[in-house]
Amino acid sequence: MARKRDIKAILNEFVHEEYWWSAELAFRWWGGAILPTYIEIDDPTGTPTAHQIRTLELLLTYRKSFRREVERKLSEEYQNRIFGSVTYYSAKRGEYGWEELTPPISKPKEIWKLVEVLSVWIPVEMQPEESQLRFKLAFGCTWDDEHGLGIQVEDWKVIGFTGSADW
What we know:
single chain; alpha+beta; 7-stranded mixed β-sheet; about 20% helix
């Protein structure tokens, strides 16, 4: 994957859009999956900061699986805050329901029936000095088509959840 000497070539794969740079990149820590990757910028004419480039290098060279940690945290969040709490109105049946959107799960791996990773985001915000790495993963989910689900990661630990469109 990425080595220090070829990060410039990788950055050349990115396309500038108004408030981010984007590319499709493969990540070992997610089983080699190719994911849309966004580097946020706060100025439409801006470029990634040195810290964002360093974060990208860390993301591209990390070799351990991160999927199981995300699976565990997502399933905990689902069981503690989401399961049974999301309702909708079915005009066809004339009632409120939740089971189709948030069905029960008995094992952490069952969370993957309800969510799918959509993208990786490297934020523009200032990085805490004690943190080497900070990024976000955006997920599509069965219970919120509009906002999805996002997780915030710092130093390979899940530190928070939000709607993926609500960073």
